[in-house]
Records
---
Amino acid sequence: MSKFIFVTGGVSSSLGKGLTASSLGRLLKCRGLRVTMCKLDPYINVDPGTMNPGEHGEVFVTHDGGETDLDLGHYERFIDEDLGQNSNTTTGWIYRSVIEKERRGDFLGRTVQVIPHVTDEIKDWVRLLADDDVDVVIVEIGGTVGDIEIVPFIEAIRQFRRDVGRENVCYMHLTLVPYLVTGEQKTKPTQHSVTELRSRGIQPDVIVCRSDKPISENLKRKISNLCDVSMEAVVSAVDAPSIYEIPLVLHDQGLDGFVCRTLGIDEASHPIDLSQWEELVRRVESLSRRVKVGIVGKYVSMPDAYMSVVEALRSAGFHYGTEIELDWIDAEKVPDLLGTDRIRQLDAIVIPGGFGVRGVEGMVAAAGYARDHAIPCLGLCLGLQVMVISVARDWANLPRANSREFDSLTPDPVIDLMPDQAHVTDKGGTMRLGSYQAALLPGSKVSEAYGTLGVTERHRHRFEFNNKYRTRLEAVGLVCSGTSPDGRLVEFVELADHPFWIGTQAHPEFKSRPDRAHPLFREFVAAALDRAEGREPHLLDLDRVP
Ligand code: GLN
């Protein structure tokens, strides 16, 4: 029988509920428990796939093609497990499923209601995650208690405890303990949010208090009294110097031990081994080198839109004891910035994924500049596409080359719609999504980076390299260094005579882990280090270019 931990939030959004849940997941995993995680999002969108990353943050793609909330990225990176699309659902998804059942006649003419039909659907969803291979399911509820949309979810998880037995469920509530200018820490918001939770029938077992200063024993006693939990159930989650330290902070506060006891998990037979995570934190704390990486994108004022790219870069940095200093470069401004110190001083450039024409010309220019000035450059999905466009325009004498996504009338669509996308009209869940294999070219830089000729990466795109231009672009030096196993789709491009100019149609950032940097990001940071530390780069032989 699996155990369930439900994580709710109060007082304010953006308190780091996802990271707290992930950290607990990691701690339980360090106790040898098999952990899975899921997020229930109360908004009406069916999934985050069609939501604006500039507002909502990155869409995290699971191996099985789910377009999910960015918190799933935290989950995967912290618990080091691949999660599936059933690890994220929303009000919209739940209602769609209930309405489909109603249309099929599954409810036999009964009135369909939030309770029991919607709450049952939510509970079924959660139950699906529990199987013989899972000891603990951690379920994060998006939003905060008191939100209108959250009510059915809170009701469902309240019922859940009765369904599966009290001893199998732990409710963890995350709140904020603000520090006022008067120099006092205030417990009132915590009391109010716990009162709100209790008014819905849920008495939290554990209260995790986020604060910028540690919470005193006195304050813990007060929260314990007023919220009716034991002293050891009040956990002070003080701001940590890095997100990787959160598991250690929570362990020091006894969170995982208390949760085990609440769930009847024998602590003695599951002693914790934190050594691997402590080793990671040691690395994170002792970065002695530094590189400056420019990220050329269109959501630069919302770094969460590129969460996994940043994490993959940082992880590659940890591998080399290197701090990654990020320069967020608005793609639309690139044409004005080329040749300025700001660009010259970069040790490397990432061109991440994206949709829509805004900023694309700047990305093409950045790819070309990096190519001609031997600056390491990594193109991810859209990044590969702009790299191909830059080679077509600058080297293959196709000045109007473009992707059909950005110029439907281009005479040279070097990037074109995939045939199976031609008749797609719906936006959500209709792209080429999830894991696909690629065969790498022996001797290529990517095959050397990966150390193998067969790789699997996650995808999310509608457009692809147009094979009609392959011979022409290869003739001027573009190396198609990886394709789908049947050879039809170009998955990787690179240049032979460049320190690192590699594009992939995939999103390798989703598979990187903090203590296991992704090979492409690792080699990219190695190339950036060469540049930063003045080692001789293998300069591009411009004479060879027609
Ligand atoms: N917009 C491009 C496409 O659909 C790239 C997508 C992406 O970068 N994820 O093909």
Note: The longest helix spans residues 114-128.
---
Amino acid sequence: MTLWSGRFDTAPDPAAFDFGISFGFDRALFEDDVTGSLAWAEALGAAAVLSAEDTQAIMDVLRAIREEGRRDPAFVSGPDEDVHSFVERKLVERIGDAGRRLHTGRSRNEQVSLDLRLYLRRRIPLLQAALARLVAACADQAEQAGAALMPSYTHLRRAQPILVAHFFLSHASALRRDHAKLQAAADDADALTLGSGAIAGTSYPVDTALLARRLGFSRVVRNSIDASSDRDFVASFLFAASLAMVHLSRMAEDLIIFTGEEHGFFELSDASATGSSMMPQKKNPDPLELVRGKCGRAVGRLTGWLVTMKGLPSGYNKDLQEDKEAVFDAEHTLAVSSAAAHAVVSRLSLNVQRTGHAASGLMLATDVADYLVSRGVPFRRAHEVVGAMVRRLLAEGRDFSDLTMAQWRDASEMFGDDAPRAATALASVQARRTPQSTNPDAVRAALRECRDWLISENPKPQPPSPNAQ
Ligand code: ARG
């Protein structure tokens, strides 16, 4: 028995009906569906559409159903078309006609959008907390690295020396933007759809502003037609999740490279690596590779959803049912990926010899050129002089630290006795001046700022619980 069987002569063809069933996945919205229904029953009661007794009976049973669902997840199952039908069936089974009155003036179109908005509002803070845990792991690594140096890369070629801490805080910065983007998605979802009816609005005098407050929404949707098919908040969420996955994937790629034998900057813990079935020496970064690989899944969900939305005429269309699996899958992907990334990052150990050694040598060429600039040589000219030095040193298999004072002077008379001191990785990072640079004082301040952010953002103040009813 469906919610709409009255109009039809024949039972639905199983192939067509089963194709449309969403209960298998939208049962994840059970809690939210009950939350919305409790508020709707109350609003109908306040508008005198429902009697006080019916309102009470409906609310009591909804709470009882919710309890049962919480106690035993298997309770939320059955032959129902979707979670909304399930809740209504349970209600009618227990209180008959009073239960049949709950759906007065309401449509599943606004209800399903409401449920997904409530769901995201509950779940986004959990994803934000997972990202914050990873930011904290990056901050811990930055702190433990202290004054350790490593090379930075452009074009994956050695560029300039940086502090290892600066590298970890660079990934923390991207993750903090993801945290903010997820918040923006939660803000997009923050609008009450109830009162929109199927498309034209409801004809019962429900107080939508009060309903919004009751459910913890800061506003009511502006237009009932738009509300019935607006899933921009889903697109925002999928975008935020995809971009977070892109950042996790890039961090994974860095770590896959830096933990490999060729670099050996960091060692993967045995606890977050895997072996080979054939090659006994292998220690593979599988968790990092999977994080990188799963990024494609999240981006696919975003792309898929945008394509689903693009051809829809105004008003609700069944295509919209596809939103939920996209949301659940992207959410799960991000949750497991950030947990895996955390497991890896929090257990990485630094090989200071390897990073320190890699941060020296010819990559100090820019600093040598800057030295000449400080002596009044125009930068373009300094670049040429140092370029020629690099060419010679490369041919001889030497670097700046091998040069005698006479050889420095030979390259340019402007090199004084202090020139060799400018050509060290430590001098290089100390020479940086700006707050966003790898200057050790700047990095220390950045780490402090990151810790302050972690304290101020997490744990997030819980939104007023709509389940308090
Ligand atoms: N399962 C549907 C969905 O997820 C619920 C809304 C059904 N509305 C309708 N008019 N058939 O979108």
Note: The chain has a mean pLDDT of 95.
